[in-house]
Each structure stands twice: as structure tokens, then as C-alpha cells.
Amino acid sequence: MSEAETPLLEVRNLQTHFFTELGVVPSVNGVSFSVKKGETIGIVGESGCGKSVTSLSLLQLISDPGKIVGGEILFNGEDLTRLSNKQMRKIRGNKISMIFQEPLTSLNPVFTIGSQISEAIRLHQNVNKEEAKEKAIVMLKKVGIPRAEKHYYSFPHLLSGGMRQRVMIAIALSCNPQLLIADEPTTALDVTIQAQILLLMKQLSTEYQTSIIIITHDLGLVAEMADRVVVMYAGQIVEQNNVYELFKNPKHPYTKGLLNSIPKIHQLKDQLESIEGNVPIPSQLPAGCKFHPRCAAALEKCRFQDPPLFQAKQGAEVRCWLHQEEVIGV
Amino acid sequence: SSTRENEKGTKGETGKDKTTLVLAQSADITTMDPQNSLSTTGDRVFRNMFNRLFYRDANMEVQPELVEAYENVDDVTWKFKLKQGVTFHNGDPLTAEDVKFSLERVMNDQTLKEYPYFTQLAKIKVIDDLTLEIITDGPMPTLLRLLAKSGADVIPKKYFEEVGLKEFQKKPIGSGPYQFVEWKRDDRVVLEAYPDYFDGAPKWKEVIVRAIPESSTRVGELLTGGVDIATDIPPNEWDRVNGDEGVSLVTGDTTRIMLLVVRTTEGSVTADPKVREAIDLAINEKAIVDSVLKGTGVPVRSRVPEGVIGSNPDLYDAYVYDVEKAKKLLAEAGFKDGLEITLTAPKGRYPLDGEVAQLIASMLGEAGIKVNLKLLESSAFLDIYNSNSNEELLMIGLADGLLDASYSLVHYTKERATGQTDYYNEKVEKLYHDAGRNLNEEERIKQYQEIQAIIAEERPHITLFQQGSNYGVSDRVEFKPRLDEVINFSDISVK
Amino acid sequence: MEVNIKTNSLADANNCIAKSKQSSLWRWPKLLLQSKTGTVGFLIVFVVVFVAVFADSLAPHNPAANNLGDMLKPPAWLDGGTSAYLLGTDNLGRDILSRIILGTRVSLLVGIFSVVVAGIIGILIGILAGYYGGLIDNILMRIVDSFLAIPSILFILVVLAVFEPSIMVLIIVIGFTNWVTYARVVRGEVLSIKEREFVKASKSIGTRNGIIMLKHIFPNIISSFIVISTLSVATTIILEASLSFLGLGIQPPEISWGGMLTDGRNYLATNWWLVTFPGIAITVTVLGIIFLGDWLRDVLDPRTQGRK
Amino acid sequence: MTMTNETETNHDCLLRIEGLKKYFPIPSGLFGKSKQFLKAVDGVDLFVKKGETLGIVGESGCGKSTTGNTILRLLEPTEGKIVFEGKDITRLSERGMQKIRKDIQMVFQDPFSSLNPRMRVFDIIAEPLRTHKAAKGRVLEEKIFELMETVGLDRSFVRRYPHEFSGGQRQRIGIARALALKPKLIICDEPVSALDVSIQAQILNLLLELQKKFNLTYIFIAHGIPAVKYISDRIAVMYMGEVVELAGKEELFSHTMHPYTSGLISAVPLPDPTLRERNNRILLEEDFPDQTNLPKGCRFYSRCPFRKDKCKEEKPLFREVRKEHVVSCHYPIIQ
Amino acid sequence: MKKYLIRRLLQLIPVLFIITFVVFVLVYLAGDPVSLMLPEDASEEDREALREALGLNEPFLYQYFHFLGDLISGDFGTSFRYSQEALPLVLERLPATFELAAASMLVAIVLAIPLGIFSARKRNSFVDLFITGGSVLGKAMPNFWLGIMLILMLAVNYQIFPVSGRGTFVHLVLPAITLGTGVAAEMTRLIRSSMLEILHQDYIRTAKSKGVSDTLVIFKHAFRNSLIPVVTITSLQISHLVSGALITETVFSWPGLGQLLVQAVNGRDMAVVQAAVFVIAILVIVINLITDLVYRLLDPRINYS
Ligand SMILES: Nc1ncnc2c1ncn2[C@@H]1O[C@H](COP(=O)(O)OP(=O)(O)OP(=O)(O)O)[C@@H](O)[C@H]1O
Ligand SMILES: Nc1ncnc2c1ncn2[C@@H]1O[C@H](COP(=O)(O)OP(=O)(O)OP(=O)(O)O)[C@@H](O)[C@H]1O
Ligand SMILES: [Mg+2]
Ligand SMILES: [Mg+2]
Ligand code: NI
């Protein structure tokens, strides 16, 4: 990371825990990363590793038993964790927007899509109803919804999954945010539709210089979209690097395993490699390296000592004892 | 609110002015056909809307009402001369034809509730416009009483035939002091004065009879001045009524006797007179009346209520109570270790009936009689009673609509007792039938009194008490209750 | 993580089975203590059931014995009250405390068993209608509609007119009038459950419909049934009071809280304690049952019961 | 159509479906009689050879699951013929079908809803054995332990409930249940789409392993193309209730002929950022025809980047364009 | 839509058919109306004669089909009790019944919506517990008890409202509160739980992520959705209000359907029972239909086919 340029967003040692009746769940446990202006970051990791909680923490949208217990979220130099609810509302949807995974359930079924878009516009821009409507229609057209004037009055259930997701994007982009967080924006969609949505997001980000955090567990998607990739495992970042390096030369055993276990269209193998064992439950994390029970290369040390995030070669950051030496080498 | 408003009958219950009387009863009337109603609540309305040939004065003496003069032509023939100038509310004059029509209707139409009482009338003959003859089926000492009874109301023949029963009910027309304005079912009946009443214009311009089933609500209305008179005030409400300025409690008698119907059928434990006596001895009627009923009622040993012709004064305000003797009798009857009987009683049919039944059950328990108490809702109770499926004991309240002992004592005849009490006593049978045809009043009374003495010993009915009646009355009106529980609006006056 | 433990002998497996059994036995009290309202609810219900079971020994007086000398005595702490009658006496001089204690029995019996009766009918009809759908559903739902439209008071009045009122009859009658709600709820639930893949899976194996309904559908509706039924127990206790108002409730010498309320209502203005104490008993019990029901709903919901 | 019949005689064919149709009535009208139908499966011809894996891919809602369910007669086919081991089972009675179901089993998509949350693992796996009275008592127990080991579950788990397992483990339970009766054919309806990437591979490997071990035949339904490609021998591509292309997997990927197939394949994001700027991507428009009122011509017409007038008017035939490579398109892409 | 309505209304026919039969059987079983019409001391001959006159001696099925025949021509028969046509007797009660039902529903809604929302928002707080306790109390208070209490306090002691009867608006207040409280209690709990569920929905998160304020999230985004399950229950409740207001009617001597029905049942007044149940059934079904339509209005996802 270059010192000169201040990043748009800098997350430092973010910790979000859930205080459930069955004990404290450290869903996000010391996550740090930063996003530059116009940059697209991909966060990957298996289900339950804390990706969504991280993204929700950024917007202070963690609900009840959950709480941000530590760390800073610097957005344009301002720590979001210290803002009041009211100040935060000014940022949500305005400077930072979010697209959620499920397009069907993320839109309110009883309001027209038009009203849901213009609501966001009216909240943050000083416009009247008519202007908001016009703007919303422009947004609908921009995300490629045919007959936007008509669809303005449609209810969400009448649209296909792809169209609904476009509406979500329209809402998110309606106020030209500086940062767009897309939490698994295409998992509910078919690949043919997904391709369109991704294209759309790419275009928009180049057009407005919007920074994007794209959260997914589809490594392919990240390979297509991201400039930099953050790999998470059990509430922690285990590897972070630019996208080309990461795919060419994964360092953490988990990243390696992940890459190997994806069946690929264009290369043929008789046997897929897979990561043995199961994703640990956040409330019952193993001691030491969180990945060691599944790690073929685990050392004795891994069982007791949690590795820190090492700065490795080629700008990578890796949380693995195997890469301890490389750091020293630098 | 103004009088004018009240006259229209829209919002009348304020009742604070001197021309409107508001009455609250515990149940609504069910019909506007005076010959098809048996309820006291109905009678209170009809008595003021219709006339009869005779009426009962405050002392329950039979007095001529529509009749100018009458004559007992022979054992079975009676001749009546009607008053002149009596008109119905629609202006038609009341004639002998109307009387004939009305009486024949109730004599012949089996669907009418009053029909059973009028079966002894054989024929009505119109002599002229104002004269008629009634021929009875055998000598009938009670005829005049019957003609003063509910159901003997005179309805306008012409109007009735013209409009039919349905329309008549929507707009009933009588010749009484008050005429019909409206009837909102389960809410109120509104009557207004009939200015051309033959006996002079009535006192009240308007009378509203409201139906308020819940006693505490009735009392509430009374206390807040919503009504002037509220009937059926249970003892638990007395403190509220007495404690409030401006209203007071007025008590009276009724002809209703609460009693236990006892099965004397062969094979049932109560067939043994000793057991029946033991039961009577075990029940402290006085205590019941004094405690639960707070004194509204008088313990009696006869089915014929005090104040009715033929009643036996020896058996009024009398009771037997001796638990020890009861136990002894039971032992003698072979029930040393006690016995078990069933008592069927209604709940909610008579004031505090459930409580009384529970008390009786526990009193019998003290004498070693285990009681299976069956407290039934009113209609289920009547089903049992009417289908004669009563077991050893059944508690019921029986009134005397005719105010004549013959009405009450028919229960001890073989014909009526069969299946129910299964009581039979040759002497009682003879006495009753002789009295029924005896036109000598004094002798007849003797015969009835003798029957009562026998019954008090043989106990096919174990009588408990003669029920009292309680009215909450606003201090602005003067009201005296009557034995027959009828209310003549014109007898009520503003203080 | 037990994934890697290989147990080869059957004995070991059985050992594990025994362990898991034990832990499930302890799970309930643990889960209970985790919820404050659940604990309170449980305690209330426990006390009420305890009182119901040992009512005879707990009651200080014979609840049916009327004492004409001690009529309408106020509670002990008021002027005129005596310590013999802690909560006062009623209009026949009976001890209110003893009556409440004895009344627990009937009120609970009626409350619980009429819900059971309603539940059995409702679940049966609901499952059949929901599972088979089509004509059967149509016919059954029309019957349900009809029953919904016939006022339940009509049933109760008529049945109690035909049969002599007793606890048994009351339970059956209330149960019979309340099944409709269950049938509706259960049917709705079944409609969604039968689309779940495990039902399809069982069908694909060749399991017969009867077994599917019994083994797959029924266990999965039972938890929502428990939730509505706890509420319903409360409603039933109060319904019994309303029936007493119509003279259709429990017969003396049997005592129920509803009956006490009804008998005492005439004394509301003058002798408040006749209705207040049974009223409090009903409210507290209902509160306890509702708390317990809410807790049960949480516990039976696999989302909260959790993946450990 | 004639083609499929010919091939069938050439091979040792386990299952053959001909002209399979499944229409769902859309309730309307006065008494719920419907005139409109949703044609979920509309004339599908397929065959599966013994020991092979037939993959079926296609977008969500194109009728993949319906095809699978209809084969098992969980849904009654509207039209067409299902022949299993040379026996026509299309009109078999419920009784007769129960016997057949022993030989055809299914593994379902969602590991969370395909196991009854209120049954223990033991009972879940035992259910098919009990239903078909295949084992009892000790033998049953032994069998279940054996099955659990086969799919890689520890036998100490038998008394657990499904919610105590992770998604991958649950899917293993589902597979154990499907294996219990030693079926000849297993229909896998998107068995890995709900699983994590790292677990997906475990299950795919397991399926392959079992296939070898028990000589199983699979119909593998999925919309994840890489996974289908990995596991299948032949792949059928479905679109709007119809099979639009069918070929051996190498053939299909190297000589994709239907524009839809090629759009589908090119839309799959590749886990290799260096390929990001590839320019052979075919983007499909998002303009679906109404499934209750399908156009008379090619169903793909509205989305096809290569559509011509003929496609609108005339329905393309399903024809063999290359050897063992059938496609229904007027203008197949020939590379 | 029109077809849908017609279909729904046609469904009435079998339902009404079942209802007439069930009611007929019930009333027939309930016993002999004659014994209730005659005085306690009437003789068996008197009763037999009346039975004959009323046609109650015929066999059951004959009586039923006779009744059904009349019914088809719109004749419910004549009330034994009122000796009047049954249907008008029932219809004249409808205004009072509607008035009370509507007012109680209003009371319930006005109470339940704010309380329900409030307790959902402050979940597990003291306020929530308080409201839960309150709604349990509301459910645990029998109507007659509450009604009499209200009369004692507000009508007799303070004389703010009239004690009983029907007439002006003020007459309506106490009965409506009495009847509405129980409904409100149930509704409060329902709104609370449905609100809690809605608040966990994804679209609420979406709204928040747009920067919508908490109040607006509740009242705009959550409320309308949470009403959807409430509407269904409300329709059930209204049915109860129509037929089940008996106790409140008795306490306030309100001339509604409930009183009529119970008196008719007690008097085995077949014609009136039939007519009343018939009318109630139609009302209930129509109310259900209306709620269905409201449901559809609230939730655009449902279509009419
Ligand atoms: N409300 C909550 N209460 C308790 N635990 C929670 C809650 N929300 C999330 N968690 C826990 O936090 C962990 C991280 O969840 P998160 O949603 O961030 O995962 P994810 O990486 O986004 O997974 P997915 O790919 O499935 O969306 C999970 O293990 C989950 O159990
Ligand atoms: N029981 C049913 N009733 C009515 N329509 C149905 C039914 N089952 C499926 N459909 C419809 O049939 C079509 C095909 O459904 P199917 O489940 O076979 O699709 P699929 O290819 O398996 O999709 P997915 O990938 O989402 O599982 C869909 O449009 C679906 O809505
Ligand atoms: Mg997530
Ligand atoms: Mg599918
Ligand atoms: Ni490690």
C-alpha cells in the first residue's frame, strides 16, 4: 500500500461480535483492509466466515445481539464507528451504498420499485417528488431496465431476478456513492444474467470512479471483477493480495485449497482436490491457527499459536506460519 | 331532555320529568299477543294496554273492569253486561263481539300459551252489543278469577281480522290506558297515554319499559336515574340500592313457592315417607331465607301461597327443622349409614336458585344424606321437569296465576302426579274434584285447606318458602308492589 | 470437532449414543434458565400444577362447606376479616382461598384437555386437507368454513342441553368448537411443509402417504401447534368463565375459577374480593402459560435452538 | 427423434424417456378448471446408459427438476414415455412404482430442507430400508453404520439430528440415504449448489468414488456448469422445458453449437484474472418469453444474439449435427 | 377478479347447506321446544296438542326437508317464541350488531397498533414486558367482569357514560371498550410478533442502508408488511364479534344478534336459530371475502386468478 495516497476507506482491526444466548460469537475478529478511490476489492471466503458481517459493520447496520467491539472504520479520514445514528444516516445510501444478496427479499414487496428508488433520492438530495421520480427513471434506464417509465410503477415480484437486482443497483447508485458494497450481488442469479450485472457494475465504476467492495464466495467472480482480493477464513483475513498475484501464486493453504477445489471449465482433471473437513463454527473456533484442523501442511506450532498477518513477497499479506520466513527475508 | 323529545320516544330514559315513567325489567317481553304470553314481564305491559272483563285490585279482590253488571244464571251459565263508551285505541267501540272473539280465540287456538287455562269455557253467546253469556263446562267457581287473569284480554275483532296476527303484533291495539308506540326487541317497549281511555286520561304521558337482564346494570341505571323502577333486585344489590340517596328498596310478596318435587314412585328411596320427612326436617328453611335471601321470602309448608283463595294460614310462615330427628328417621327407614339422592335444580331461573340448592345440599349432607347436585341451565332444567325425568328431588318455583288454590293443588291429583311425583291419595283426589265443582266458596276453601294439611304430612312436595319480590324504586315515584307482580302504571304516582 | 474421530466398535458408538442422550436430557433445564421469562413461566406453571395435584391437602378449609355465620367475610388484612379466612369468604360463607386452590384442578383440566381435544381434531383434519389438497381439501375446508360460521356458543348450548354438564362433556364440547382454528393453521403449515424436500425425498423412496404424514409432516407442525395451544389454554380457562355466566359451566360442588368469577360478579360493587382473587389466579396462570409458550416457540425453532 | 431410438439399441440403456411432457395447470376459471398451462417440460427425449453420468444444465426454471421428478413419477407426466430397464413405467400403479423406486433414488439440492429436522440420522438413513423391509434390528444397524462409513460420516453421529451437521455432512447423509437400497440409478438434483466451494469438491469426489465402487448411473442436474462438466459423461442443455443440445462433454465444450449453450458457457466467470479480458464472450439479453404462452418459433429467439427471421416462425428440429451431438437450432454455430 | 368473486360466492352454497343441516340437527337434538313454551304446570295433553299444531310430530328428515323447501323460497319459518317471521327478527338486529362490532374493532385497532409496534421496538425492555402483561390481563379479563367494572366506575360512580342501552354515540363507548379490549390484547401480541419478524427481513436492512430513519423504517417499511398477517386474524375476530358479543350485549342490554341467538337456542326456537346462523354465516363469509380483498390490497404479490 502506498503511503502517499490516502485510501477512501480504511478498516483497522475491525472486531464485530455477536452476544448470543449460547455465548459470544466473534464473527469478525480483527479485520484490516483499505480501499482506494476507484478500486474494486473482492472479499472471498466460505459461507459464515464473516464477509457479510464485515460489510454490515461498515455501514453500522449490525442488528441486535451483534456489536462492533473494536477497531476503526475510517471513511475519508472520519471514523464511522464514532458517528451518531443521525450522522450515519447521512452517509448510508449517499456516500456508501450497499447491494444485497437476495434481490427478492431485499426489496420491500409492498412498494413499487419506483418509490423505493426515489425514496433514496429524496432522502439525500434536495429534490421534490417529481424530480426524484425523473431521476429514478433515469437510474432505471441506466441499469438497463426496459420501459423504465412503466416499470417505475411495478411491484418487485413482477420482475425477474435479474431485473430486481438491477433495481437494487439503481437504488445503490442513485446518489452517486463513493463506495459501493455489493454483498454477493449475483448468487441468486443465473450465470447469463450474472454476466450482465457484472458488466453493468464494471461500467458504472469506471464511469463514476466509484470504489467497489464485492463480497462473494465465487472465486471466478472475483477473478473477473476485482483489483485486489481479500481472503477471509473464520472471521479473519488470511490472505490479501492483488488479483493477478493471488491467483497465480496463492500462499495460504486455504487459498490454495480453494483454488484447487474449483472445477474449471477449460482444464480437465480426473480428481478435484478438496479441502478436507468442515468450516468451523464461529462460536467453537479451534485454538491456534483457525485453519489448522483442515490444513495438510499444518505445523505443530499452528495448533497453539495464532499466526499474525505476515507481509509476504509481491505485496501479499498472509496469515500463516509457513510464510513467516518470507517476511524476515524482506 | 325535553318532554317533547320523550313523547317521540327517541331518547326517553332520562325520565326526570313528571310525565315519563321508565321501568326496567330483567327480561324483554316476547310477543305483542297478550294471549300468547305467560310471563310476568309481558303481563306488566299488556295489563296497561288491554282491558279484561274483570281485574284484581291491590288487595287481589276481583273487581269488574269492562263489566257493568253480571249474573250467574245457572250452574254453568253467566251473563255479563259491558260498560258503555269503551273504545279501542283506533277509536272503534268495544262490543260483546270483541269479547266473544277474544275469548273464543284463547279457548280454541291450541298454539296459544294461555290456551290450557281456558279449556273449561264451553261457549260464548252474544246477546246484544253490550251483553254476552259465557257457558262453562260444568260448574266453575273460578270463572271470574279466570276472566281477570292474563290471557282474558280483549282484543279488537275487526282490526285483528283485518290485519292478521303479524300486523297486529307490529301495531297492537287494545282498549287500555296506554297505547303502543314502539317495541325494540331486547331493548324497550314504549307506550303513551291513551287520552280517550274510558276511565279518564292516564297519569303518565309516556311509559318506557326497558329490558336489562344484568342485575347490576339494572341497579346502575336506577342509581344514575336512568330508570324509575327496577324489578328483580337480588339481595346482593340491596346495599347499593339502600345506600344511595334518592332510591330505595321496596319489597313485596309473590305467589311463587319454591319447593322440592319428591319422587314417591315405588322403588325410589323417597318412596318411604320417613325419608321424605327426614329431608324436610333436615332443611332449615328459615336459615335459607334469612341468610342467602336476606329475608325476602317466608318459609311455608304449603304449595298454596298466602293471599290466594284457599290458602292455609297454619302452614304459612312455618317450617320444621330437626336434624337429630331426621337422622333418627333415616335410621328407622334403614339408612343408618346415610343414603345418596339426586337433587336437580335450575341455575339462573329464580333469584339465587343455585345458592339455595347448594345450601340445601349441604344441609342434607349434615343429616347424612349425600346429595348429587345437578344445577342446570334454565331450558335444560325445564326439559327434565317436563319430561318427568326428575330423580329423587327437583327444586322448582311454582306460581299461581289464577290466585286460586285449585290452580296449585292440581299437582296432587293422580292425573297430574303420574310420572312426576307418582303421588296418589284417594282422599286428596276426592276433595280436589269436589271442590272444583263447588260453588260454595267457604266450603271450597275448607276442602282445599284440608288437602294442604295432608300434603304437608305426606310430602310429595317439600315446600321451602314463598318468594318475595324486590324492586328498586326512585324516590320521585310512589310504588306499591302487588302479590301478582303486575304493575299498573296508573297506580304509580309522582311524589 | 469430532469429524476425525474414528470409532470402529459398536460399543463406542453406543457410548456416544448414551452421551448424546444424557446431554439432551440436560439441555432443557439449561435452555430454560437462559430465558428469564421462560423461567418465570415455568415456575408459575409448576406451582399451579403442584397446587392442582395436591389441592386436597393444601386447602385450609372444605371449599364446599358453607358457613352461614361467616358470609362475605373480607380478606384477613381488612377490617372484619379473620385469619381463618385469608382471602375472605363468599356469599355462602365458603373460604375463597380453599376454593381457588381446588378450582385450579378443574380450570387446568378443562384448559389443557379441551385444547388437546381441539388439537387432535384440528391437526387430523388440517393434515389431511393440506396434504392431499384438491377435492379432499375443498370438502374439508368447506366444513371448516361452516363450523367457523356457526357460532360456537350454539354448539355449547345445545350439547350441554343434550348431555348433562360435566367436566368431561365440557372438555369435549369446548374442544369440539375450537378445532377449526387448529385445522386452519395446521393446513397452512402443511401446505408449506409438504413442499419441503424431505417430504419429496421420502416419497421418492416409496414411503406411503400415511407414514409420511405421521413421520414427516406431523412432527414438524407440532411446534407451531404448541405455541397456539398455550395461548388457547388461556382462552379456554376464560371461556369456561363465560360459560358459567350463561349457566353452562362447571357444576357445583365442582369448583372452577370461571365459576367463581361468575358467582362473584354480582358482588363486584360491594364485596370485591369474591372476583378479584380468582381473577388474579387466572391472570397469573395465563401469564405463566404464555411465557412458557413463547419460550417453547423459541426453543423449538431450529434457528434459535441452533447448530450448537 | 428417430435418432434417439437408434442409439438406444446400440447401447446398454438403463433409462429412456421419450417425448416427456409435464404441464402444470394454472388455476383459473369458475371452478378452478384451467385452460392455461405452464409447460415446465415440453417434449424431452433422453437416455442414460448404464454406468454413465448424464448431466443436465440450464437456467433456473427451465424444467430440470421437473424432469427429474417426473422420471421418479413424483409428478405424473402429462405425456410421454419413461422406460426403465426396458420396462415402461409411465403408467405403472403406485404399488408397482414403489418397487421401481428401490432402483431409482434421488439426492436433493438443499441439504438443509431435504432432511427432516426432527428425525435422527439413523432414522433418516433407515427410512428407505424400513419402507422396503430390506433390513431389521441388528442387520439394519450394521447396514446403516456401513453406509455412513461409505459416505465418510462417523458412526458416532447416528443419534444426532440434522441441524447438528454442516451442509457438507448433511449432503452426505442424503447420499447415504439414496445409497441405502443399492439403487441402479441416482438422480442428483443440484446436490452441490447449496454448498461451499471447498465442500462442493468433497461431495463431487465422493459421488465419483461411489460411482466407481457400486457401478452407479447418475443423472446429474445442476446449473453450475463446471461441476457438471467435471462429473458428467454426456451433458444435456435445457432451455424452457426443452433439451436444446446434447453431446458428450468434450464434444459439447469443444464444439458448442447452440447459441444458448455458448452463451451459458461463456458467461461462467473463470477463476483466472488473466482471462478477464477475453473477448469471445456472448452476452444474452434478458428478455424471457412468457412461459405460459410460448412463441411458436424457437423459444430462444428473443434472447438469441444470432436470431434470424426463420427462427421466429419455425420451430427448429432436434437433429444430430455431428456424431452423437444433437442440437435444436436452425443455425448452429459451426466452428 | 370478477370470476374470483363469483367463485368465492358460489362456495357459499355448500357451506350454507352444511350449516343448515348441522344447525337443524343441533336444535333438533337440543330438545322439545314445546315444553319451554308452556307453563311449568301445563299437562302432557296440552303439550301434545301444541306439538301437533306446530308440526313437531313429523319425523326428523321430513321436518328438515320441509324446512329446506321453505328456505329455498326464502322462508325461514315462524319463530315459536315471537310468533313472527324469523328473518326480519334477525335482520332488525343487524344495525346494532354492526355498530358494536365496528366500534370494538376500532377500539382494538387504536389500542393495538401503537402498543404492538412499541413493544416490538423496545423488545425485551421493561415497556415490552409491561405491554405483554397488559395484553395478558386484557385477555384474562372475562367480558362480563370488565363490562360491569366499567359500568361501576365510569357510568355509576363518575357518570361519564350512560349505563346501558343503545342510542347515541356515548352509549357505544363502554360496550365497545369491553368487547374491544380482548381483541386488542390478541392483536397487540400479533402485531408485536409479526413486527419482530418483519424487522429481521432483508428489505428492512435495505431501507436502513439507504439512510432511512428508524421511525420511517418502522412506520413506512415495516408496518404495512406486518399488517398482512394481522388482517387474517382480524377477519376471524370480526366473525367472533358478530356472533360472540352475547355477554357484552347482556351486560349492557344491547339489542344485538348475540342475545337473540342465545334466547332462540334456549327456547329451541328453530326458525330464529336457523335464520340467525344463516345470516351470521353469510356475514362471516362476506367478511372473509373482504379481508381477502384487503389482503390483496396490502400485498401486491397475490393475484386474483
Ligand atoms: N444475528 C446473528 N446472531 C448470531 N450470529 C450471527 C448473526 N449474524 C451472523 N452471525 C454469525 O456470524 C458469522 C459470519 O456471518 P456472515 O453472514 O458474515 O457470513 P458470510 O461470510 O457473509 O456468509 P455467507 O456467504 O453465507 O453470506 C456466521 O457464522 C454467523 O453465525
Ligand atoms: N408443482 C408445480 N406447480 C406449478 N408449477 C411448477 C411446479 N413445479 C415447478 N413448476 C414450474 O415449472 C417450471 C420448471 O421448474 P423446475 O423446478 O423443473 O425448474 P429447474 O430447472 O429445476 O429450476 P431450478 O434450477 O431453479 O431448480 C418453473 O417455471 C416452475 O415455476
Ligand atoms: Mg453473507
Ligand atoms: Mg430445480
Ligand atoms: Ni496454518
TrEMBL record, chain A:
One of its GO terms (cellular component) is plasma membrane. CDD domains: ABC_NikE_OppD_transporters (cd03257). InterPro entries: AAA+_ATPase, ABC_Ni/Peptide_Import, ABC_transporter-like_ATP-bd, ABC_transporter-like_CS, Oligopep_ABC_C, P-loop_NTPase. Residues 9-259 form the ABC transporter domain. SMART domains: AAA. SUPFAM superfamilies: P-loop containing nucleoside triphosphate hydrolases. Keywords: ATP-binding, Cell membrane, Membrane, Nucleotide-binding, Transport. One of its GO terms (biological process) is peptide transport. It is a peripheral membrane protein. Pfam families: ABC_tran (PF00005), oligo_HPY (PF08352). The keyword Cell membrane applies. GO terms for molecular function: ATP binding; ATP hydrolysis activity. It is found in: Cell membrane. Belongs to the ABC transporter superfamily. This is Peptide/nickel transport system ATP-binding protein. It comes from Fictibacillus solisalsi.
TrEMBL record, chain C:
Belongs to the binding-protein-dependent transport system permease family. GO terms for biological process: transmembrane transport. It comes from Fictibacillus solisalsi. Residues 104-293 form the ABC transmembrane type-1 domain. SUPFAM superfamilies: MetI-like. It is found in: Cell membrane. It is a multi-pass membrane protein. The chain crosses the membrane at residues 37-55, 108-132, 139-161, 167-186, 217-239, 272-293. PROSITE patterns: ABC_TM1. This is Peptide/nickel transport system permease protein. The lineage of its organism: Bacteria, Bacillati, Bacillota, Bacilli, Bacillales. Coiled coil: none annotated. The keyword Membrane applies. Pfam families: BPD_transp_1, OppC_N.
Automatic annotation (TrEMBL), chain D:
PROSITE patterns: ABC_TRANSPORTER_1, ABC_TRANSPORTER_2. InterPro entries: AAA+_ATPase, ABC_transp_ATP-bind, ABC_transporter-like_ATP-bd, ABC_transporter-like_CS, Oligopep_ABC_C, P-loop_NTPase. One of its GO terms (molecular function) is ATP hydrolysis activity. This is Peptide/nickel transport system ATP-binding protein. GO terms for biological process: peptide transport; transmembrane transport. Transmembrane segments: none annotated. Keywords: ATP-binding, Nucleotide-binding, Transport. Residues 15-265 form the ABC transporter domain. Gene3D superfamilies: P-loop containing nucleotide triphosphate hydrolases (3.40.50.300). It comes from the Bacteria.
UniProtKB/TrEMBL annotation, chain E:
This is Peptide/nickel transport system permease protein. The chain crosses the membrane at residues 12-31, 100-120, 141-161, 167-185, 272-295. Belongs to the binding-protein-dependent transport system permease family. Residues 94-291 form the ABC transmembrane type-1 domain. Signal peptide: none annotated. Gene3D superfamilies: MetI-like. It is a multi-pass membrane protein. Keywords: Cell membrane, Membrane, Transmembrane, Transmembrane helix, Transport. It comes from Fictibacillus solisalsi. The lineage of its organism: Bacteria, Bacillati, Bacillota, Bacilli, Bacillales.
